[in-house]
Amino acid sequence: MMNQILPLVKENRKASHDIDPVFLNRWSPRSYKSDPIPEEVLYSVLEAARWAPSANNEQPWRFVLARSQEDKERFYSFIADANRVWCEKAPVLILAVAKTISSRGTHNRAYAFDTGAACGFLSLEASRQGLITHVMGGFDREKASEVLGIPDGYEPQVVIAIGYQGDKEVLPEALQEREKPSTRRELSETVMEGVFAEK
User: Fold this and answer.
1) pTM of the predicted structure, to 2 decimals
2) Is residue 174 assigned to a domain?
3) Distance (Å, rounded) from C-alpha 97 to C-alpha 117?
4) What total number of domains does the chain contain?
5) Neighbour tally for 65: CB within 10 Å
């Protein structure tokens, strides 16, 4: 459990306003140790996702876990090769799936937003627990639905690799160069008052 900014993060990120270190410490490394995640830690991370905000309390998110080698092999069949290069060492892969139909039988316009919020909560709690996460959009959604038996009315959103951070030297050279926390735009480029203005 961390309450201070990690050294590598401090070298690459600086908040303009006071925020909890967990927000800066969460980034997306690609180097994983294969060490298993204790059950209680993994489920604490999933518990955090459970409490994400949700329009009309629909809670459209669902998480399919892959921890056994057999289950991970299923995931590898639909994950892009560029991501497989590094994600195969992660002890847990999670497919976030969103229910697109509301409990009233109508299209839930907030399904992706709400599922994204749940994934954000999951990533922050993972960071707080000393884990790393990397969210991947590079996968075949149709194949994921087919391989995992996801029915109509549910849409795969992202794959999340989760585990403990490894040494960057185990990555291909091109990825080693990218293995550091990224920065973000300044608030002045993102926040506007009153009306929208392209920045």
Assistant:
1) 0.95
2) no
3) 13
4) 1
5) 16
Per residue in 99-130, pLDDT (tens digit) is: 999 999 999 999 999 999 999 999 999 999 99
| Tokens describing residue 169 | 């030297």
Nearest to 183 by CA among 4, 10, 3, 5: 10
Phi, psi of 3 (to 5 degrees): -130, 15
Beta strands in the chain (DSSP E): 61-66, 92-99, 132-136, 154-163
Name which of 10, 35, 51 is nearest 132 in CA terms: 35
DSSP 170: G
Token reading at 120 = 């954000």
Q: Look at residue 88 and tell me if it is in a domain.
A: yes
Residue 136 has a CB neighbour count (10 Å cut-off) of: 19
- Calpha distance 139→8 (Å, rounded): 29
